[in-house]
Write the structure tokens for this entry.
Amino acid sequence: MDQIEQTLAVATEHHRAGRTAEAERLYRDVLDASPGHPDALHLLGVIALQSGRADEAVDRIAQAVAGDDGSPLFHANLGHALHASGRHREAAMSFARALTLLTNEGEGWGNVGALANLIRRYDDDIRAAAAAEVDARYTMGDVMRRQSLLFLLTGDVAYYRVLVNTALDDPLRFSIPSMHYAYWGIAMRLFQGDTRKGDVSAFTTGEFRRFYRLLVEETARRYGLDTRLRRVAPRTAVRRVALITNQMLGEGHQPTADAFDYARRLQDHHGCQVLIVNPNAMAVEGENGFVPEYSYNVTAEYDGEQTLTAFGAEVRMLSFPQPRFDEEKLTAIVDAVQRFDPDVIVAFGGSNTVADLFARSRPVVFLPTSSGLPPSLATLLLGYAPEDSAAGWPEEARARFRPFSFGWTLPDAGPARSRADFGLPADGPLYVVVGNRLDQEVGPEFLETLDRLLDRVPDAHVAFAGAVTDLPGRIAAARNAARMHALGDVDAIRGLYGVATAYLNPPRQGGGGSAAFALADGLPVVSYAQGDVAGIVDAASTVADEAAFLDRAATLGQDAAARAQAAEAARTRFAETADRARSVEKLLDYAREAQELY
């Protein structure tokens, strides 16, 4: 090790230990001995940035980049210095160069994701410029990673169009697991509302829908499942039902409770022999370069054939927790369903690939757990909420649509609770925001809406119920942070509803279950006219814009008579539209119709 390297090593040890004066002196010694030394310039710039001297940091780190343009770390820290100097467009370009260098080197999602999220802080014009920089410098041939990364940076659905059309034009270019993972990655981004540019409706009714069909057809063909999926003769009664769901996760997971509830009612109230099939067929581990990487949960103890017990009932379940989507697993699932020999298959939940494998061989009824056009290949497509219609759907889907209401079974209300039980102040209006994905669903715009509401209702508080990681940090930066409370998971959600003033729904697709339970408990809802919640509540509960959102929420918090009237309307709506028993009866009617049509 030469003298310069020794000096740098000692200096960085001082730097890590917080002895910045000693480190800075030694970095300058290196520059005296080797003018323009990139590492010394970079680290001096880092000290300047850490000391609040952003302009000096920009100058130092820019010199380091000029001496070594291939260091992702130099470009990233130059981005931080430029951001601190208020030069956001230049900062985004530096982050983009760092991101591309890492991606071209085969870096995994961790650091790439962190850089992408730094760029996503900026406005759309800056994000688009940064994406163009990434695109221009990208050297890998991986269309999945390239196009999904560009969408992540910009929210422009055009990049997903490129990705999907590449697969549609040349499906053999991609493996089945790769297409499967990409499908779920795109679906989740669209569900979370990350699109900022482009016609999402045209994409989902067009290319993306064809991509899903391609995935199902190629899975059956390449894995040799077509020969196993024998077309059964039409039957005239529904005695055996296979309810195929994407995932069963156990207690606390609302779709799990709903799937079990449908199964036990079909079995215990209507005499059907029911088998829940739990393929865990959502993406559960990274199967290609799609970004961002993600995975869905799997309950490992749900393995093989077993009996589930809840609500005083028992239902058989066959579960496949293996974290993959491959020929061995799908063959085992298909063979198991064939042995059970159901009269009808209920596809429980959207993008139910396994259920759709059977669409040509058995009657399949799609039972949605969310509103909107499904990609399902089922014989019949049911609506989610009472006023749902197939208006705007492709003609072939409209012909398969049937009106339906998902219905709800209320969880146990438990003992009466006080606000103190939740660590909340006893006085003033209490607004609640509830969900399983609040980190994603409560964005900066909705937090600003809540801030405006608390400005307007000065004695009010907002409680967030649901597991969160990032949200508390963002709440801390709000004007009214002291009156915003992240409660985490709340077991006794109806207990919380009992002490709340109103349920506030952020702009999102999901939230149907939590909103339905609010209605049942007479908790008025305030929602924009979009997504599942808007379909469940009455028209008076939905609003067109932020001004109307604030007006309704403030009125519910400050006008006792208006709140009492809204509470009664909520209970009436639940009683009229959300009875699960009636929904199960209607499902059986449609199952018989599916037998005739298929």
About this structure: The first strand starts at residue 240 and ends at 245.
